[in-house]
Amino acid sequence: MKAWDRDDLPTGDDKIRAVQAMFDAIAPRYDLVNRVMTFRLDVRWRRLAVRSLALPPGARVLDLAAGTGDLCVDLTRAGLAPVSIDLSYGMLAADRSGAPRIQADVLRLPVPAGVADGVTCGFALRNLTDLGDFFDELARVLRPGGAIALLDVAIPANPILRAGHSIYFGKVVPKVGALLSDGAAYRYLPRSVAYLPPAVVMMDRLRRAGFTNGQRRMLSGGITQLITATRS
Fold first, then answer.
1. Which of 118, 125, 141, 148 has the fewest CB atoms within 10 Å, measured from its CB?
2. Which of 209, 173, 208 has its CA nearest to residue 26?
3. How confident is the model at residue 7 (pLDDT cuts 50, 70, 90)?
């Protein structure tokens, strides 16, 4: 049995190893599955995240847990200078963005303090072992006034949308993943939402890490969240 297909969700070092192995395994068809299962809404979400940074041309942006580099492509198109950082070698090998690539744990970034004007992260918050440590690391690598845009899945507040999303995310997405890629990985995906803390806890921890103007915007009926803030 694969580590990410256990009945219990992995934690600590087990989670790090499981997440790394899982993304190595699904890297070759990751983009295809994303487009199919989101009906290409993921393209819209990433572009919105890039616009929300509101950074000037040439600004340096660290794209954390960058995967195959989709956000780096959008950042480059916006005139920004992205750096792709991911724990998974498989994902970095599949990156065709042309951005500089670094294999690293995003909780311990191998870059100096204050080096970045912005940080993006797409759909990886729930894969981290400690969100508080992650927010602290964002504050360390950003210059004062730097911006963040963090995307991840969410659960709709509307009960009808929530029920429909639960069926799609819990039943349909794993079948699509099994057909096109790795079934175990896409069974883990809906379960991994349990890793995310309540929104009020997450936003308070972001504030305590040194961020102001924190906002949490719900997208596409609440199935996705975009978190933005400014380094104080």
1. 141
2. 173
3. low
The dihedrals phi and psi of 114, each to the nearest 5 degrees, come to: 70, 20
Most distant pair of Cα atoms in the chain: their distance: 48
Q: Which domains can be identified in the chain, with CATH numbers?
A: 3-231 (3.40.50.150)
How far is residue 102 CA from its own chain's centroid? 16
Average pLDDT over residues 95-117: 97
Give the start-end residues of each E strand in the chain. Answer: 60-64, 81-86, 101-103, 116-122, 142-153, 211-219, 224-231
Q: Give the strands of the sheet with 101-103, arranged side by side.
A: 101-103, 81-86, 60-64, 116-122, 142-153, 224-231, 211-219
The answer to whether residue 73 scores a pLDDT higher than 90 is: yes
Percentages helix, strand, coil for the chain (3-state, rounded to 5) are 50, 20, 30
Distance CA 61, CA 118 (A): 5
The rounded distance, in Å, linking the Cα atoms of 59 and 74 is 13
Identify the residue whose tokens are 């069926």: 167
Classify 113 as helix, strand or coil. Answer: coil
Asked whether the beta carbons of 172 and 143 are under 8 A apart, the reply is no
Grouping H, G, I as helix, E, B as strand and the rest as coil, residue 73 is: helix
